[in-house]
Amino acid sequence: MKEFEASCLSAQIVDENVEFTLLELSRASGASEEEIMLWVAEGAFEPKGAAPQTWRFSGASLRRAHTAFRLARDLQINAPGIALALDLLDEIEALKIPSRRLRHN
């Protein structure tokens, strides 16, 4: 008999205008507050506010935090590597946009 492997897919749709505190972003992404603070120090995130207690993260930060968390957990990538990987993923996504437009014309 064949084994059946089930996987669960979850997604969150977040309005870009929604803002998260450090604690809220941590809880929503699964990353610790310390991890997020390291990623901010490396430039992976640019919160509004001068200090961690006043930081506000955009809705887009949640997607980035999920990705950063998976990179850290699954691939054991350190904070500088996560910042670089997120920037490269953004560049790849930006390159796909013109390609999609050409295919649909």
Question: Could you describe the 3D structure shown?
Answer:
With 105 residues, the protein is mainly alpha-helical. It has one domain: Multidrug-efflux Transporter Regulator, Chain: A, Domain 2 (Orthogonal Bundle), CATH 1.10.1660. Helix content is 57%, strand content 4%. Strands 1-2 form a two-stranded antiparallel ribbon. α1 packs across α3 and α3 packs across α4. The protein starts with 18 loop residues before the first strand and ends with a helix. About 6% of the residues have low confidence.
Short account of what is shown:
The chain is 57% helix and 4% strand.
**Number of strand segments:** 2
The structural class is mainly alpha
Roughly what is the average pLDDT, rounded to an integer? 86
By CATH, the topology is: Multidrug-efflux Transporter Regulator, Chain: A, Domain 2
Protein name: Chaperone modulator CbpM
Q: What's the SSE blueprint?
A:
Layout: E1 19-20, H1 22-29, H2 33-41, E2 57-58, H3 59-75, H4 79-104
Antiparallel strand pairs: 1-2
Helix pairs in contact: 1-3, 3-4
Provide keyphrases for this structure.
Multidrug-efflux Transporter Regulator, Chain: A, Domain 2; 105 residues; globular; 4% strand; 4 helices; two-stranded antiparallel ribbon; 2 strands; mainly alpha
